[in-house]
Amino acid sequence: MFLHKIDEELSLKLLEVKDAERVFEITNISREYLREWLPWLDHTKGLEDTKGFIQVCLRGFAENKSVNTGIMYKGQIVGVAGYNQLNWSNKTAYMGYWLGEEYQGNGMMTRVAKALTDYAFKELKLDKVEVRVALENKKSRGIPERLGFVNEGCIRQAEWLYTHYVDHIVYGMLAKDWCKQSSLKNKGCVN
Predict the structure, then answer these.
(1) What local confidence, expressed as pLDDT, does residue 1 receive?
(2) What CA–CA distance (Å, rounded) separates 138 from 150?
(3) What pLDDT shows up at residue 124?
(4) CATH code of the domain occupying 3-181
(5) What pLDDT score does 180 carry?
(6) N- to C-terminal Cα separation, the chain
(7) Angle, to 10 degrees, between the axis of helix 138-146 and the axis of helix 108-122?
(8) φ, ψ at 24 (rounded to 5°)
(9) Which of 21, 92, 96, 135 could lock 167 by a disulfide, CB 3.0 to 4.6 Å apart?
(10) Which pLDDT belongs to residue 186?
(11) Beta strand 92-99 with 128-134: parallel, antiparallel or unpaired?
């Protein structure tokens, strides 16, 4: 079982099928808010859809292709974050995240993204973490920017979002740069 404690309030746990009810609940409560940026909301209509998503996540974890976790805040799932894809050939993790609307704006996701980046470099010994964010999603873009990720460019019409295309900004962090700026220097961080 994957469980990663971030601090006294926050931890990440591997999603399990038994978490489907809570994941669907937070998705449903925040549906209108999340729909502005996430293309899968209209396909998540019920508990069975969320169970299917979690089963795909578990298969990806078992095959060492992804790590998707529930964000636990004071013992309750409030969102999902992780590596949607692990590219072992290129030693790259592709990070994704979402948080229920009522939990936004308190720095929680920045702490989660920092912990995931630390984990990618220190534990998985990867060389790069990449985050792709919709150009207009200023809140989500602020997360990698606050953590010092480099804006590596824009992918035009990267994603079809219900009625229109959105451009994505690609943010990247290299292990050598993370180690220079973080407290992980000389603590198992790959250079």
Answers:
(1) 57
(2) 15
(3) 95
(4) 3.40.630.30
(5) 87
(6) 28
(7) 50
(8) -65, -40
(9) 135
(10) 46
(11) parallel
